Amino acid sequence: MLRNYFKIAWRNLLKHKAYSVLNISGLTIGIAACLLIFLVVSFELGYDGFQKNYNTIYRIVTTSTTKDGGEQHNPGIPCPAVEALRTDFPQIEKLVAVNSAYGSQLTVLGDNPNADPASSKKIIENNGVVFTQPDYFSIFNTYWLEGNAQSLKDPGNIILDKQTAVKYFGDWKNATGKFLKLDNTVLLKISGIVDDAPVNSDFPVKLFISYETLKHYADKYGYSKEWGSLSSNHQVYALLPSTVNAASIQRQLPGFIKKHDGLESQRQLILQPLKDMHFDYRYGTLGDHSTSRTILWTLSLIGVLIIIMASINFINLSTAQAVGRSREVGIRKVLGSTRSQLIGQVMGETFLLVLVSILLALLLAKLAMPYLSNVASVPSSISLLTLGSSLFLVITLIVVTALSGTYPALVVSGFTPVLALKSKINAASIGGISLRRILVITQFSISQILIIGTIVAVSQMNYVRNADLGFNKEAVFVVPAYSDSALMTRMKPMKEELLKSPDILSVSIASDVPSSDNNWASNFYFNNSGKDADFPSFLKYADEDYFRTFGLQFLAGRGFAASDTMHELVVNETMMHKLGITDPQKMIGKTIKIGSGHWLPIAGVVKDFKTNSLREDIKPLTISSSQTNYFTTGIKIHTSDIARTTAFIQRIWQQTYPEYAYESHFMDDTINRFYQQENQLSLLYKIFAGIAIFISCLGLYGLVSYMAVQKTKEVGIRKVLGASISNIVVMFSKEFTLLITIAFVIAVPVAWYLMSGWLQNFVYRIHMGAGVFLLAIFASLLIAWITVGYRAVKAALANPVKSLRSE
Known about the structure:
Blueprint: H1 2-15, H2 17-45, E1 57-65, E2 71-74, H3 81-88, E3 94-100, E4 104-110, E5 121-125, E6 129-132, H4 136-139, E7 144-146, E8 157-161, H5 162-169, E9 179-182, E10 186-194, E11 207-210, H6 211-216, H7 218-221, E12 234-239, H8 246-260, E13 267-273, H9 274-277, H10 293-322, H11 326-334, H12 339-375, H13 387-413, H14 417-421, H15 427-430, H16 433-466, E14 476-480, H17 491-498, E15 504-510, E16 521-522, E17 524-526, E18 537-541, H18 546-549, E19 554-557, E20 569-572, H19 573-578, E21 591-594, E22 599-606, E23 621-624, E24 632-637, H20 642-656, E25 665-666, H21 667-673, H22 676-710, H23 712-720, H24 725-759, H25 770-796, H26 800-804
Parallel strand pairs: 6-11, 8-10, 18-23, 20-22
Antiparallel strand pairs: 1-2, 1-12, 1-13, 3-6, 3-12, 4-5, 4-9, 7-10, 8-11, 9-10, 14-24, 14-25, 15-24, 16-18, 17-21, 19-22, 20-23, 21-22
Helix pairs in contact: 1-12, 2-10, 2-12, 2-13, 2-22, 10-13, 10-16, 10-22, 12-13, 16-22, 16-24, 16-25, 17-20, 22-23, 22-25, 24-25
């Protein structure tokens, strides 16, 4: 019986090629899109799920409340808190500090610790270098290839992961016992090798340096014994026994803070579960990627909706085809087929069609895999077929077969044999036209939501790219600067050499560029007051050419004079307004003291510029000179011959810092990286909107095909009575225009709600005006008219004699 079902199903697919191609196309694209969504969502939700202690690992993070009621979130805690936590909370099983050293250079010295760094292999590691303790390997999964964790008790020891050891020495087995130099300062001996961390881990650590080394180089790497000092680089992780409740620890942490630093009203330590770490933007991760569960559930919902749309297509196309199969069904019933057998036949055909679609979807997904990393933060190396994805495809096969086949099976099996054999099956006998109209409305509601989402996302990202940031980001080339005492004297000569080129307009050495991830902040005092301000001042350090290089505009006063140390300040508009002053001229000459520093006069007020990304408010800012805090060189260049100019910069830089590896980028590339996830989401909306439109068009074609079959004689009569082709097209289009309009009314409030929530991620954002929604309805109607028009014209051109022959 089953074999017979599949044989007939295969013959029907071949007999009705156009119908089969339309159905398979919609299902193939829909299933392929859902499979890729499943891979992305599974990858993100699986972050660190492999950790054996996944449910009992916590990170201790800091939330600070400012005096004006604001909140600041920091993933770090003060350095002395580590030992204090061990003493005060003996019930914590393991506790480990992890201090990141971002942008570190490793010089490969090999067997000779005294090798010349200038002639040795140098590698910049922007992420994955940490100072930590032996207990790190008791908390997190680790497979040891050589050595053991106890070597990290001693200063000067480092452990590499396998991939890094291969990169440095060609073979990880040759690495142990060899020497590296960190930032041309810290000599390190390799004492062990561990296996690489999985790709979906928020702990992509490649080099583990002993924590005691950090203490020996406290000033260079920010280790402080002061409880008031807080750095996001210094993070602490705790492993709790299964018998200890995290809530009980959390209740004791306010008392712990009060006991040790007395800042209980401003600072709070919070236990953040490892399972939440990847999805909390406020604190970030040790890696460079985090996401939100909302985005993942949104993607999952889109996947489900696309599958539903593809199933709706099948229903519409199958019922449109059912009239043509009425005689076949009539003969089968006369020959003794039961209704259950007819249902089984239709479900078998559906199963076969869905199975073919899944196989084609696998091929399509395989072709798309190399491009998946462009639209989502997943590596191109992830596998397409896993146990999870295979189970997903099996469930998809069952669910889509049930969704797509049940209604057509009930319709076909319900034909009356006499009417079927006399070709009297029509809309009245099939019924369900109202259901199919509802399905088309559903399809176009979904597609219009995605169209509106695409328009809003693209418009917002265009706004971000073209927004006035308050400074000039164009043609600014950025290279590193080094503030070590031994290298500080090289800054000025390098700057002078660079300015000898006519292609270089200006050079500034600073802590960072105007818009960056930097969030250095401090308490401060204003105008000789003994009481500190109610909000922190965010800090940037730069030389006197900073304002000219980046095109910052002064509202009053001037930039500070050349100096290696802080002697004058420049503030921004936001700082001025938060201090209650409206006239920029009245700020000039007033004084500010940063933390426990000296009173410094305000030399100028600059117009506000975007200090971070457009997701955040502009922060109250002070800019001053401090050569010990310079890490970046910004170079404004002519664009007439960029290759020649950048080659000149590289040559001068390498002559100045021969012991360092050269790195460079344009400033606008840095700014674009702020919005990588939003740009990916915008691209995803475009792709899914295109898929939804394509599937909707197939659905429309199915319903128009059904109506064309039902109205064959009506169209013939109208043509005999003188109706033109345009009259026939209007007759078909009128109903679908109404259906799409109804879909639009449904889609608008849903899309407005969803995209308003997404736009809340940006402090600076577009306004969703009527134009966005009008463009969406116009696009939907245009696409629908083209789809309907094609099938309607085909029906209108049919010979009326053939249409009326059966009468």
